[in-house]
Design goal:
about 425 residues, Jelly Rolls, 3 helices
Length: about 425
Amino acid sequence: MREKLTAALLATLLVLAAGCKDDDNTQSTNITDETTAKAALDRVLQPMAQTLVGALKDLQGKSSPLKRSGLTVGSKRAAVKVTGSSSCPEGGTIAIDADLVGSVFTGSATLTDCGVLGVKLSGKLSGTLELISGGVRIDVSGTLTFSGLFSGSITIKRLVAELNGSTICYSAEIELVGKATITVGDGCGSKSDSTVDTSDANGDVDSPDAGPDGDSTVDTTVDTTVDTTVDTTSSGCQPRTPTVDLLEQNWLTTPTSTKFADRSTGTNTSFVGSKLLSGGNPGAYSRINTQLLPGPAAQIYVAVPVPGATYNPSTLGSIHSLALSMDISSINTGTTIQRFMLEQNGVVYWTPFMTSSGSGWMTVNWKDTDFTRASASGPSKPDFSGTAAQISFGFLVGHSTSNTIAVQNDRSHGTDNWQVKITQCVPGT
């Protein structure tokens, strides 16, 4: 009798053990397309960003001279070296190798089985983390390998995110194995209260919206007053005020637009550029319609130089900094992508992209340090010095999918209140 009870007890324990083992085998989602890639990033970005910020702050506070060193020269502060390793919330480590100048960390983070929310992350991210009002702004690239709730690898060509407390927004340009480049994320921008006049969605023109000067050239204002206040910024010169402003909000002519071949893939794409005289934010606006036609996965970028929006540093003076802004809308056609653009010596540079969806208008902003090379070759950054070639400004709109296109996929990209504020250098500084 005792032997039977013992055998029964052992059998029961084996069944229970098998049941526990099955419960632990949580199903993993393979990262194979745009939907699963976005789901994976949505899950890990916020805790990963918080882990990164915590590691940087912890390592920055270390007193060891091997881990933290700084030198003040005049009114400029040299880089503070921040290196070391920190633990992740669910095991694993994140190793930091960065320089801190002012409020910007520049360097890399290496993740080794870094556990967050049931996902293990391994890989290396390089770029910047900037302390901003209310949070941080992250701009990185690299590769992440996922295991756990998600499995697979994502190559991040560019990811821009803003973390405010426990809230994160982001835009990412990524590649998956065997897939074309795709964009995911909802972007980070300040939404306005204005809405699009959808009565003009068919392209009809209702009434003219003449600008203050009535011409088709970008309004340019230049003032030669010198500001003698010393400001030690990364440009190495003193800023001159007021700014040189390039503004386009009248759209009296349709901007010339071309497909940007260096960042477009597939032959099954097309676009049409136009201007509408009402429905903007407010009044006239530029509208670019892009189409992905049935066929393989594809991506299209359309470059739109703004008429008359040029600046020649060799004749007008070197540039201290740029403040860039424009209003964007998707005109109720799904998520759209827009970037600021400049061209110099035949090389195109662009800013991180912002996305828009729905019928409203969103104001988005960038700065001069956001520009990176978009062309296949050329200098990595534009030249703002006093001997630099002429710069032409504009914007880019984009549209992509990582899946085979069964039905034509259309987007309408609205642009209004496009503006560049150029702060010049005081001559001789």
